[in-house]
Amino acid sequence: MAKYRTVALAEMQIGPILQEMSQIALRHRLPLPASLTLSAKALAQVQLATANLDPELDPFEVAGKFLVRSTLKSIKSRRVLTRSGQNLKFPCSFP
Question: Measured between alpha carbons, how far is residue 6 from residues 2, 18, 39, 46, 93 in Å?
Fold first, then answer.
């Protein structure tokens, strides 16, 4: 990941990245899921389209922002559920 952190999206190529991942997995005898191939194809198409639309886009920044928003949303909904659970009144008592 560090190797690709400073590379612009337009310069990134999914193929070589996946080839490198495959070599690492093979070296460590780790099977890669079959769905990775389909995901890689979809990512390659998205990468190509995105690089044409915005070559300066930093995918790590975009992913980071998404993860932060997603995590905060998850924490917020857990907090709401916890508060809701604290406000519940049961008609009977438990031993």
Answer: 8, 18, 23, 19, 60
Q: How many domains does the chain have?
A: 2
Owning domain of residue 8: 1-55
Residue at 15: amino acid letter: G
Who's near 15: CB < 8 A, 6+ residues apart? Answer: 44
pLDDT tens digits, 1-28: 677 778 776 677 777 887 788 888 889 9
* Residue 94 forms part of a structural domain: no
Q: Helix, strand, coil % (nearest 5) of the chain? A: 70, 0, 30
> CA–CA separation, 9 vs 41, rounded Å?
16
Predicted confidence (pLDDT) per residue in 37-50, tens digit: 777 778 778 778 88
pTM of the model: 0.39
- Both 50 and 62 in one domain: the answer is no
